[in-house]
Amino acid sequence: MSAVTATILENEMGARTKPATPDEGSRLGFRLTLPAQILVLFISAFPLLMQLYISVTDWSPLSGAGWWNAWEMWNSFANYTDLAADTRFWSALQRTAIVMLVCVPAEFLLGLALATLFADEFPGKRIFYSILLMPMMVVPAVAGYMFFMLFQSGGPVNDILSRIVGTPVTIAWLSDPNLALIAVMIADIWQWTPLMFLILLAGLVGVPEDQMKAATLLGANAWQRFTTIVLPKMKTIIIIALAIRVIENFKIFDTLYIMTGGGPGVATETISVYIYKVTTQDLIWGYVAAIALAILIVLSIVAVYAMKRMAKAREVPA
Amino acid sequence: MKRSVPFEIFRYAAILAAMAVTLVPILWMVSMAFKPIGEWSATGADLTWWPKQPTLTNFRFVFGESDNDLIVALDHTALKPILSSLLSAVFGTAIAMSAGTAAAYGLSRFGSGQNLPLALIQLRLFPPMAVMIPVMIMWAFLNLNDTWWGLALIYGIVTLPFAFWLMKTFFDDMLREIEEAALVEGCSRLRVFTRITLPMMRAPLASAALFVFILNWSDYLIALLLTTREWVTVPVYMASLSSSMTGQLYGAKAALGLIAAVPPVIMGIAIQRHLVRGLTFGALKQ
């Protein structure tokens, strides 16, 4: 592993891209980027307009009319006002936030701790490294099924607990509202701590050795070296790692849905699960479109704000 | 830096603990996949951590061989889902990689498509669940529902950001001397791209393709929404493999899970070097 270069988004685009030569180059460039442009347009512009259109109607795939006739079911902005009063939606949002606030910091701290242990060479490092990365490569749905089995009341988790306490433990993890949420969070932490570990380790090996040595000579202890040299050097990388997990964790669906199906009741129903259920069981697609659009708008605002902040942070050399 | 002996002891102890936590869930599924039906849901003192009588029955069962202990017959075997997963992931990867590589080259060398980097990041930002209604309507309109090619198309679009960003950083890092020499020799720019750059980039292309394949192969939600019966993928098939009549088919599902989990784990280890770059959209290179 060599030094780590941290460069993000436009910064890189601006510095590295050659100015287009007017002739052959720009024509070829246009043709090469065309397929990607078409795919992006195909999946963003038209679907967004359709979503906007359907979201102000009562249209459902069962209504008999094609989606283009949805205007006949125009309901002004009832979907949006319903959404504001939809307690199931708001508690799903709240649950998603709780999962995120527990999982992302836990993954970060565990990943950072592991990365610190892997910062220098030691016998067996490569094999340990490969094995510790495995969870993030397991298909999430399969990981969900693994934890579904582990958390059965007669399953291995309770078996281990029984051996520790000495008496048989038969906790019904997945049918208790509180424990089910804990179980799905454990599964998420198991699967994604390796990602934090991987990214943070890449950042950690980029911290210059000589600075650490100098600090040691000046009498700084390990904790001081960590907080004054390592953390500031890793700031950008930490932000990137956290941003990736926050984005992905917000979407949480596969593992969770396979483990609990959002249940018991609605105890583990996150935003994605809630939308999935309204889409496939209640089939009120006009309403789903409104929810989805609201989420997209909020996320876009957050994204623009975050990118501005990141652009500002980048002006200060890391 | 030299570390003290107590630190080394602590390090190995901590790593071994982490290894145990990492491996137990995986090994439990592996063990379950080889357990006979009698050991599937044995509890308490009968709980077996390793199959007492290892068997391949579970694998035979998901491929359609009837089992005396299991009265259920599958309405279709795991073969078609495996084929569906393979076809949709392979062709999805092909779509993402060809569009992504071409666009990355166009931007990296000629500055075309300046909007793409951000547009593609945004594509990745949104939860798939929040854009699936129009996609489901469009796919129904185009007769793409419940087909592997319909899945391949959406996979190609969903993983396009990764293909594009990975290839862009590879192209940016590449030495330009050979390309420039060929241009001086009178090669057209297109020829330089197809005859010189692409063959030189074979290894990065392969890593990026494997990375994208893993993502496509791992999908569950999109296949759950866009396939119903004919072309369900392995994860969807696995999840549907239990009924009120049979209860959980633990062993059979574990066998399927193992089949689904093995390819990406092997590929992931093979491209370990590029994982950081891929996962951070090229923002970090290892």
Task: Detail the poorly predicted runs of chain A.
Answer: 1-21
The tally of beta strands of chain A, per DSSP, is 1
Secondary-structure element string of chain B: HHHHHHHHHHHHHEEHHE
Strand-residue proportion of chain A:
under 5%
Structural class of chain A: mainly alpha
Number of helices of chain B: 15
SS-based class of chain B? mainly alpha
- Could you tell me the number of beta strands of chain B? 3
Number of domains of chain A: 2
Q: Could you give a short account of the major beta sheet of chain B?
A: 2 strands, antiparallel
Distance between the termini of chain B: 21 Å
Proportion of β residues of chain B? under 5%
pLDDT averaged over residues of chain A: 84
Spatial shape of chain B: globular
Percentage of residues assigned to helices of chain A: over 70%
Question: Which architecture name of the largest domain in chain A does CATH use?
Answer: Orthogonal Bundle
The CATH first-level class of the largest domain in chain A comes to Mainly Alpha
Description:
Chain A is mainly alpha-helical and 318 residues long. In chain A, 71% of the residues lie in helices and 1% in strands. Chain A folds into 2 domains: 41-76, no CATH class; 79-314, MetI-like fold (Orthogonal Bundle), CATH 1.10.3720.10. Chain A has 14 helices and 1 strand; from the N terminus they run E-H-H-H-H-H-H-H-H-H-H-H-H-H-H. Chain B has 15 helices and 3 strands. The longest helix of chain B has 32 residues, at 79-110. At the A-B interface, strand 1, helix 1, helix 2, helix 4 and helix 5 of A face helix 1, helix 4, helix 5, helix 6 and helix 8 of B.
